[in-house]
Design a protein that fits this description.
The structure is a homodimer.
Chain A (H helix, E strand, L loop, with lengths): L8 H8 L7 E7 L5 E8 L2 E8 L8 H13 L17 E3 L2 E7 L11 H17 L13 H9 L2 H7 L3 H15 L6 E4 L8 E4 L2 E5 L6 E4 H12 L9 H14 L4 H28 L11 H13 L9
Antiparallel strand pairs in A: 1-2, 2-3, 3-5, 4-5, 6-9, 7-8
Helix pairs in contact in A: 3-7, 3-8, 4-6, 4-9, 7-9, 9-10
């Protein structure tokens, strides 16, 4: 939760002269997004989010992300529409950094999803996968399964510092994935960060998804695995198979899963837990002791990994 | 710029059941306010700011602040109106902390005020002073001139660490104020933090003031002195007498100054610079080296103090 780039009234006014969105009425930095600076902007024409992309986002990926958002919005998927300036440009520059204006998407995220929320969220994810089918942009998933072994190579000591013996356990996970990862599942554009804080509800119904800045081309079912890790675990670390089944049921309202996808789901979710464990471990290792901003706890995902190593009874089996 | 308290969707929903403001549609933490956590809330009935008061605000002062805001809004001053719940209560509790809901006030603050902005801001401050006349609440200014010598007593070494010899210079300032501070100026409710980020404009006109959490009973002209320090210095540290004169001209549209107030203004502004220097020095001294959140630079106000020690030619003299 941060605003890294400070925008003055004069910079904002100059930025908006390129657009047909009227004059600014209110402008506030919002405490949302770890990777970017986000501002709520109200103008005489409507409400928008202004995003300034910070150093963790690769500039070369921005046309893919913004193109995807544009495609989704143009095809009726409830997500924030990027706003083009008068010359048709979506990706702009502000204070020397890449920046974009998107329409404000109302909705509330939920902290502790219910079974009903999981069903809605599952449907929202399948809707996203289906809507993205016609999108021609491609981006390799830099955090996909092929990246984990090289990522972990330099982190073994950090893993053992976090929990003695953990490095060997992770090596065993990696060996399992190297041997068993399915290679012929249906692929497409995945959200890759479909966590509860990126999904909006109104009156208990799914009303939209935001934050497409990890989206990539990968196994569609891997996106389900990542989402189930985020949506279907209790605060005490227990897997909630009822919520996971509801997520899948909701998903299949829009996109039925193949037998191969269902069979692979426990392994994909296990791998997805490793993916989030690894990026959290990177952040944790890079943060000096005593820093005021604490990174997310990697051990939350190590606890999920431990659950996956035991197996998820009932998960992925057609109910 | 921070959000210290994290509010879940369930806590928000429970909080709103006490109010007649409909159901939440959107809710975002805003990166504004150093002392409190602020959230932008949109409901089916309108838009609001939810403030959760953090430890730096004294709970006993909240009825004064909120009562003042209520008085100002009820008497037509453009400021955020506190919203009462169904039982008439304005000061509520959320996550065990004091909290209040106020109407959203649109407008943009300016980073580099022009002469015209200063004139408008001056008028807005006098309007505030006049509107607060009927408010019966009282709060001693805990950061008023009587507090500075005791505050500085424990900070002399920090001042010298910041700049060698500074402690002696500050002691000379304090001696000047002890001898010369005017004791019979018109008193009233002052904003006490009337900085550009707390004042909103639309189309170059003053449209409102926010953040009354330093308001107190003190010399009205002391509020002008504080404001002039914030509005009428150039980025290079030069005093801008044209802007200061415009601020006073704007002020006098609503409340003419007495001869005694005009004559006292240079000393009051000098004292106000010390007040902000001292609180920044306290924060600076309390922040560990290497912390990611940097406190505001006390030397910015030491540079203003140096300007005041030289005198402000033309300031306060009737133009």
């Amino acid at each position: 939760m941060a605003v890294y780039t400070d925008i003055t009234d004069q910079e904002l006014e100059a930025f908006l002269t390129d657009y047909d969105v009227g004059a600014a009425l209110a402008f506030k930095g919002i405490a949302e997004g770890v990777e970017n600076s986000n501002f709520m902007l109200e103008t005489t024409a409507g409400r928008y989010i202004l995003t300034v992309y910070e150093r963790r986002v690769n500039r070369d990926d921005l046309p893919f992300f913004l193109g995807l958002m544009q495609h989704l919005a143009a095809h009726g998927y409830p997500s924030a529409t990027p706003i083009a300036d008068r010359s048709g440009a979506i990706l702009k520059t502000l204070r020397g950094k890449p920046a974009a204006l998107v329409a404000f998407l109302p909705g509330l995220s939920v902290r502790r999803p219910t079974v009903a929320h999981c069903r809605e969220a599952g449907e929202g994810l399948a809707w996203l996968h289906k809507t993205a089918e016609g999108f021609t942009g491609r981006r390799v998933n830099a955090l996909g399964h092929g990246a984990w072994a090289p990522m972990f190579a330099g982190l073994e000591a950090d893993a053992d510092a976090l929990k003695p013996g953990l490095a060997a356990t992770i090596r065993a996970d990696l060996a399992l994935f190297a041997k068993s990862w399915p290679l012929d599942l249906p692929k497409g554009v995945i959200h890759a960060d479909y966590f509860p804080d990126n999904v909006f509800f109104a009156d208990g119904r799914f009303v939209g998804a935001i934050d497409f800045y990890f989206a990539a081309w990968d196994d569609l079912a891997f996106d389900i695995g990542s989402a189930v890790n985020a949506w279907c675990f209790e605060a005490d670390g227990e897997f909630n198979v009822t919520q996971a089944q509801a997520f899948l049921d909701g998903y299949e309202r829009r996109r039925p899963l193949s037998q191969a996808e269902r069979a692979a789901l426990p392994l994909l979710a296990h791998g997805a837990a490793l993916r989030f464990f690894l990026t959290r471990l990177v952040d944790w290792s890079a943060t000096p002791a005593g820093a005021l901003v604490r990174p997310k706890d990697p051990l939350e995902y190590e606890r999920k990994l431990a659950v996956h190593r035991e197996g998820l009874p009932g998960f992925g089996v057609r109910g």
